[in-house]
Amino acid sequence: MRTLLLALTISAAAIPATAQDVKSGIDAWQKGDAAGAVAIWRPLAEQGDADAAFNIGQSYRLGKGVPLDLAQAQSWLERAARKGHNDAAATLGLLLFQNGNRVTAMRWLRQAAEAGEPRALLLIGTALYNGDGIASDPVTAYAYVSRSAAQGLAQAKATLADMDQIMPLDQRQKGLALAKKLAAVRTSDIAGAQPKALTKPKAPAKSTPSKVAVALAPPIAPVPAAASGAWRIQLGAFSQRSSAQSLFSKMSTKLGGLQPYYIPAGAVVRLQAGPFRTRADASAACARLAPQPCFAVVAR
């Protein structure tokens, strides 16, 4: 019996990684074996699997299972994005945007936004509203941000509330109409891509999503001390200043070198951090802090 068990163990270990699937890597990742997960995903990614390439990119971005290497992360994310992987396009775009390569970032973020990815919709929408590196278009901006907010992204909801206070009603109405049109086109594209069933389809089996759960984001790159900015991010409002200070202390690692601002507002104290040169920079920072409620505000 011992000999048989040993033989089975050797046989199982000898199965090549290429014979396994992306889900096998996810199972390994969730069990704490990040290196094993990467070993499973790598040959799949090299054979063209976009999900596997995305997961390897995330692994390099997080430094789990492999050394932290943003250049490698960018390379693998781009492989996945070129195959139409929208999460990869959005993550790649955000990574490039935060590293100052906005021209290339916008290309990938546009791809993801056109596919309805909420983070990309928010960032492109904010850039469109501000005319930040792109021609200003408030109506399309409102359409993009409202589509992002409709998917539940907290930062988008906060940004949309700001836009509601600033934009004329007619522009907002046009934006909502455009958002519905864009969503309808996207739904039509998805439906058209599905083959018609000749018989009543069976209920699909439940499966684990082929994506690595994103861990804590790396710290936000601070604005150089010599720089000034007209924008900040707001992280909450508290009845006591000590509560605001406590939250900032807990988030200090992710906030990097950002400066805290404690703004009295009636019976509450608002916690803000910054500065940021543009609203797009502030919104990008908020996107990296999810699920922490956060939105961009003008420094006053």
From TrEMBL:
InterPro entries: ISR_Activator, Sel1-like, SPOR-like_dom, SPOR-like_sf, TPR-like_helical_dom_sf. This is SPOR domain-containing protein. One of its GO terms (molecular function) is peptidoglycan binding. SMART domains: SEL1. Residues 225-300 form the SPOR domain. It holds the Pfam family SPOR. It comes from Sphingomonas edaphi. Residues 1-19 form the signal peptide. Keywords: Signal.
